[in-house]
Amino acid sequence: MRRAIAAAMSRAKREIPHYYLSHRIDLQTAQDWLAATNAERPPDRRLLMGALLIRATVRALAKVPELNGRFEGGDYAPSETINCGMAVAMRGGGLIAPAIMDAGDKPLDDIMAAMRDLVARTRAGRLRNSEVTQGTLTISSLGESGVDALFGVIYPPQVALVGFGSPRPEPVAQDGTVAARVCVTATLAADHRVSDGRRGATFLAEIDRLLQEPETI
After folding, report:
1. Cβ neighbours, 10 Å, residue 31
2. For the segment 9-18, what is each residue's pLDDT rounded down to a tens digit?
3. Handedness of CA 186, 127, 14, 199 (dihedral sign)
4. Residue range(s) defining the domain that contains residue 205
Protein backbone atom coordinates (compact mmCIF):
# COMPACT_ATOMS: atom_id res chain seq x y z
CA MET A 1 0.00 0.00 0.00
CA ARG A 2 2.73 2.47 0.96
CA ARG A 3 4.71 1.64 -2.20
CA ALA A 4 1.63 2.19 -4.38
CA ILE A 5 0.86 5.53 -2.69
CA ALA A 6 4.50 6.62 -2.97
CA ALA A 7 4.61 5.77 -6.68
CA ALA A 8 1.38 7.68 -7.45
CA MET A 9 2.32 10.72 -5.38
CA SER A 10 5.88 10.85 -6.73
CA ARG A 11 4.48 10.82 -10.24
CA ALA A 12 2.01 13.56 -9.33
CA LYS A 13 4.64 15.91 -7.89
CA ARG A 14 7.01 15.17 -10.79
CA GLU A 15 4.51 15.68 -13.61
CA ILE A 16 1.80 18.02 -12.30
CA PRO A 17 2.56 21.74 -11.78
CA HIS A 18 0.52 22.17 -8.59
CA TYR A 19 -0.78 25.47 -7.27
CA TYR A 20 -2.45 25.81 -3.88
CA LEU A 21 -5.17 28.06 -2.47
CA SER A 22 -6.91 28.17 0.91
CA HIS A 23 -10.11 29.85 2.04
CA ARG A 24 -11.84 30.03 5.40
CA ILE A 25 -15.57 29.25 5.24
CA ASP A 26 -18.11 30.20 7.89
CA LEU A 27 -20.07 26.97 8.47
CA GLN A 28 -22.38 28.21 11.23
CA THR A 29 -25.42 28.56 8.98
CA ALA A 30 -24.80 25.11 7.51
CA GLN A 31 -24.24 23.63 10.98
CA ASP A 32 -27.48 25.12 12.30
CA TRP A 33 -29.44 23.89 9.28
CA LEU A 34 -27.94 20.42 9.63
CA ALA A 35 -28.86 20.23 13.33
CA ALA A 36 -32.45 21.34 12.64
CA THR A 37 -32.81 18.90 9.74
CA ASN A 38 -31.40 15.94 11.67
CA ALA A 39 -33.63 16.67 14.68
CA GLU A 40 -36.63 15.68 12.53
CA ARG A 41 -35.07 12.48 11.17
CA PRO A 42 -34.48 8.98 12.51
CA PRO A 43 -30.81 8.14 13.19
CA ASP A 44 -30.36 6.10 10.00
CA ARG A 45 -31.41 9.07 7.82
CA ARG A 46 -29.37 11.79 9.50
CA LEU A 47 -26.88 13.77 7.47
CA LEU A 48 -23.20 14.40 8.17
CA MET A 49 -21.42 17.65 7.43
CA GLY A 50 -19.20 15.69 5.04
CA ALA A 51 -22.15 15.05 2.74
CA LEU A 52 -22.93 18.77 2.66
CA LEU A 53 -19.29 19.58 1.82
CA ILE A 54 -19.25 17.05 -1.01
CA ARG A 55 -22.55 18.29 -2.42
CA ALA A 56 -21.38 21.92 -2.34
CA THR A 57 -18.08 21.01 -4.01
CA VAL A 58 -19.78 19.02 -6.75
CA ARG A 59 -22.27 21.81 -7.45
CA ALA A 60 -19.48 24.43 -7.54
CA LEU A 61 -17.94 22.59 -10.49
CA ALA A 62 -20.75 23.99 -12.66
CA LYS A 63 -19.04 27.37 -12.33
CA VAL A 64 -15.47 26.09 -12.89
CA PRO A 65 -15.93 22.90 -14.93
CA GLU A 66 -12.29 22.64 -16.00
CA LEU A 67 -11.40 21.31 -12.55
CA ASN A 68 -13.41 18.15 -13.31
CA GLY A 69 -11.53 15.94 -15.74
CA ARG A 70 -8.39 13.95 -16.46
CA PHE A 71 -4.99 14.81 -17.99
CA GLU A 72 -3.72 11.76 -19.89
CA GLY A 73 -1.31 11.22 -22.76
CA GLY A 74 -0.35 14.89 -22.82
CA ASP A 75 -3.93 16.10 -23.29
CA TYR A 76 -6.67 17.28 -20.96
CA ALA A 77 -10.12 15.71 -21.30
CA PRO A 78 -12.92 17.46 -19.38
CA SER A 79 -15.56 15.16 -17.95
CA GLU A 80 -19.28 15.80 -18.18
CA THR A 81 -19.80 13.20 -15.45
CA ILE A 82 -18.61 14.01 -11.92
CA ASN A 83 -17.08 10.95 -10.27
CA CYS A 84 -16.11 12.42 -6.92
CA GLY A 85 -13.27 10.61 -5.17
CA MET A 86 -13.48 10.46 -1.39
CA ALA A 87 -10.31 9.72 0.61
CA VAL A 88 -10.93 6.78 2.97
CA ALA A 89 -8.45 5.51 5.57
CA MET A 90 -7.95 1.74 5.43
CA ARG A 91 -8.21 -0.26 8.65
CA GLY A 92 -4.89 -1.96 7.98
CA GLY A 93 -3.18 1.35 7.18
CA GLY A 94 -2.89 3.42 4.04
CA LEU A 95 -5.36 5.50 2.10
CA ILE A 96 -7.57 4.98 -0.94
CA ALA A 97 -9.87 7.40 -2.75
CA PRO A 98 -12.76 5.53 -4.39
CA ALA A 99 -15.27 7.61 -6.30
CA ILE A 100 -18.93 8.33 -5.76
CA MET A 101 -19.98 7.72 -9.35
CA ASP A 102 -22.24 10.28 -11.07
CA ALA A 103 -22.08 12.46 -7.95
CA GLY A 104 -23.28 15.49 -9.89
CA ASP A 105 -26.69 13.87 -10.39
CA LYS A 106 -27.17 12.84 -6.76
CA PRO A 107 -29.18 14.95 -4.27
CA LEU A 108 -27.89 15.39 -0.73
CA ASP A 109 -29.57 12.31 0.75
CA ASP A 110 -28.20 10.13 -2.03
CA ILE A 111 -24.70 11.56 -1.46
CA MET A 112 -25.00 10.60 2.22
CA ALA A 113 -26.12 7.07 1.35
CA ALA A 114 -23.31 6.73 -1.20
CA MET A 115 -20.75 7.85 1.40
CA ARG A 116 -21.89 5.24 3.91
CA ASP A 117 -21.93 2.53 1.26
CA LEU A 118 -18.51 3.44 -0.14
CA VAL A 119 -16.79 3.50 3.26
CA ALA A 120 -18.31 0.14 4.22
CA ARG A 121 -17.32 -1.53 0.95
CA THR A 122 -13.83 0.04 0.99
CA ARG A 123 -13.09 -1.44 4.40
CA ALA A 124 -14.60 -4.78 3.38
CA GLY A 125 -12.49 -4.89 0.21
CA ARG A 126 -15.50 -4.89 -2.12
CA LEU A 127 -14.89 -1.87 -4.34
CA ARG A 128 -15.71 -1.92 -8.04
CA ASN A 129 -12.83 -1.29 -10.44
CA SER A 130 -14.60 1.77 -11.89
CA GLU A 131 -14.79 3.37 -8.44
CA VAL A 132 -11.02 3.12 -8.07
CA THR A 133 -9.95 4.08 -11.60
CA GLN A 134 -12.51 6.57 -12.96
CA GLY A 135 -12.51 9.45 -10.46
CA THR A 136 -12.56 12.95 -11.94
CA LEU A 137 -12.00 15.03 -8.75
CA THR A 138 -11.05 14.03 -5.19
CA ILE A 139 -12.12 15.42 -1.81
CA SER A 140 -10.05 14.73 1.29
CA SER A 141 -10.96 15.64 4.85
CA LEU A 142 -8.89 15.35 8.01
CA GLY A 143 -11.54 16.97 10.17
CA GLU A 144 -11.67 14.05 12.57
CA SER A 145 -7.93 14.47 13.19
CA GLY A 146 -8.28 18.03 14.42
CA VAL A 147 -5.96 19.66 11.86
CA ASP A 148 -6.69 23.19 10.65
CA ALA A 149 -6.02 22.52 6.96
CA LEU A 150 -4.55 20.00 4.54
CA PHE A 151 -2.71 20.72 1.31
CA GLY A 152 -3.05 17.57 -0.78
CA VAL A 153 -1.26 16.06 -3.73
CA ILE A 154 -3.41 15.64 -6.83
CA TYR A 155 -4.18 12.02 -7.70
CA PRO A 156 -3.19 11.58 -11.38
CA PRO A 157 -4.65 11.72 -13.94
CA GLN A 158 -7.09 14.03 -12.11
CA VAL A 159 -6.41 17.77 -12.11
CA ALA A 160 -7.70 18.93 -8.72
CA LEU A 161 -8.05 17.92 -5.09
CA VAL A 162 -10.18 19.72 -2.50
CA GLY A 163 -9.27 19.47 1.17
CA PHE A 164 -11.25 20.33 4.31
CA GLY A 165 -9.75 20.73 7.77
CA SER A 166 -11.51 20.42 11.10
CA PRO A 167 -14.60 22.61 11.64
CA ARG A 168 -14.12 24.58 14.84
CA PRO A 169 -15.41 27.73 16.56
CA GLU A 170 -13.49 30.85 15.59
CA PRO A 171 -14.01 34.57 16.25
CA VAL A 172 -15.83 36.13 13.29
CA ALA A 173 -16.70 39.80 12.77
CA GLN A 174 -20.36 40.12 11.76
CA ASP A 175 -22.66 43.15 11.77
CA GLY A 176 -20.21 45.19 13.82
CA THR A 177 -19.72 42.56 16.53
CA VAL A 178 -17.42 39.60 17.03
CA ALA A 179 -18.96 36.20 17.71
CA ALA A 180 -17.78 32.60 17.89
CA ARG A 181 -18.89 30.76 14.74
CA VAL A 182 -18.02 27.34 13.37
CA CYS A 183 -15.56 27.70 10.48
CA VAL A 184 -13.53 25.37 8.28
CA THR A 185 -10.51 25.94 6.07
CA ALA A 186 -11.05 24.67 2.53
CA THR A 187 -8.02 24.17 0.29
CA LEU A 188 -7.54 23.52 -3.38
CA ALA A 189 -4.61 21.78 -5.08
CA ALA A 190 -5.00 22.24 -8.83
CA ASP A 191 -3.10 21.55 -12.04
CA HIS A 192 -1.69 24.74 -13.57
CA ARG A 193 -1.83 23.19 -17.05
CA VAL A 194 -5.61 23.27 -16.85
CA SER A 195 -6.54 26.21 -14.60
CA ASP A 196 -5.02 29.14 -12.74
CA GLY A 197 -5.33 30.84 -9.37
CA ARG A 198 -8.15 33.14 -10.43
CA ARG A 199 -10.31 30.23 -11.53
CA GLY A 200 -9.39 28.25 -8.44
CA ALA A 201 -10.38 31.21 -6.26
CA THR A 202 -13.74 31.41 -8.06
CA PHE A 203 -14.28 27.72 -7.30
CA LEU A 204 -13.58 28.05 -3.55
CA ALA A 205 -15.75 31.16 -3.36
CA GLU A 206 -18.62 29.26 -5.00
CA ILE A 207 -18.32 26.43 -2.46
CA ASP A 208 -18.50 29.08 0.27
CA ARG A 209 -21.56 30.73 -1.30
CA LEU A 210 -23.43 27.44 -1.56
CA LEU A 211 -22.73 26.55 2.07
CA GLN A 212 -24.32 29.83 3.16
CA GLU A 213 -27.59 28.55 1.62
CA PRO A 214 -27.60 24.88 2.73
CA GLU A 215 -31.33 24.47 2.18
CA THR A 216 -30.75 24.99 -1.57
CA ILE A 217 -27.95 22.43 -1.89
Report:
1. 19
2. 899 999 999 9
3. negative
4. 2-216
The 10s digit of each residue's pLDDT in 84-140 is 999 998 877 778 899 999 999 999 999 999 999 999 998 888 999 999 999 999 999
User: Residue 213: what pLDDT?
Assistant: 97
- CATH code of the domain covering residue 148: 3.30.559.10
Per the prediction, the chain carries an average pLDDT of: 94
Rounded-to-integer distance, Cα 123 and Cα 89, Å? 8
> What domain count does the chain have?
1
Residues 118/88, Cβ–Cβ less than 8 Å: yes
